[in-house]
Amino acid sequence: MPKIVIISSSIRTDRNSHRVALYLENYLVANQLAEAEILDLQKCNFPLFNTPLKYQQDPSFQALQFAKKIKAAEGIIIVTPEYNGSFPASLKNAIDLLYEEWRHKPVAIATVSIGPHGGAQALVALQFILWKIKAWTITETFHVANVTSAYNALGVPSDKMQADGFAEAFVKELLWCIKADETVLS
Predict the structure, then answer these.
(1) HEC sequence for the chain
(2) pLDDT digit string (tens) for 120-166?
């Protein structure tokens, strides 16, 4: 079973995107599709990094663990809210901490908004940055509009059938990319 890391990128106290991270973790595990683990940037409590991890003299335990988990993951799902037409600074900080760990890594992007657009602008900004560091972003996306009515605080969707339908296509594409990546590397 592939190892998938889900990055919950918002560190705000009133965050809502974490609901989708919880849902996706549960979806992967309940359907026995992957080993899933949430890397919660709120819990990492990273400082603002002034240099990438490989150049740090005395990196923190949290930064080393984050790098280790990203490197070991066969695929990554990033769950991000849209803040002012982009994604949170906490996510950019975490992405810029690493470089080689992202190279050719299959990455799926789930975007979230409290409004009707589902974080579409965050997707564009994030996808460009991931391309620049040579991550392999999948083409299927998972947009969640009106997240506070679509998912509760525990990640339970208000319309499970619809959420599972979107998740099925999203995860299927990520799993295909993971398998393709393994084929290329072997």
Answers:
(1) CCEEEEEECCCCCCCCCHHHHHHHHHHHHHCCCCEEEEEEHHHHCCCCCCCCHHHCCCCCHHHHHHHHHHHHCCEEEEEEECECCECCHHHHHHHHHCCHHHCCCEEEEEEECCCCCCCHHHHHHHHHHHHHCCCEEEEEEEEECCHHHHECCCCCECCHHHHHHHHHHHHHHHHHHHHHHHHHHC
(2) 999 999 999 999 999 999 999 999 999 999 999 999 999 999 999 99
Total tally of structural domains belonging to the chain: 1
- Name the pTM for this structure: 0.95
Give the domain CATH number at 148.
3.40.50.360
Name the residue range of residue 91's domain: 3-185
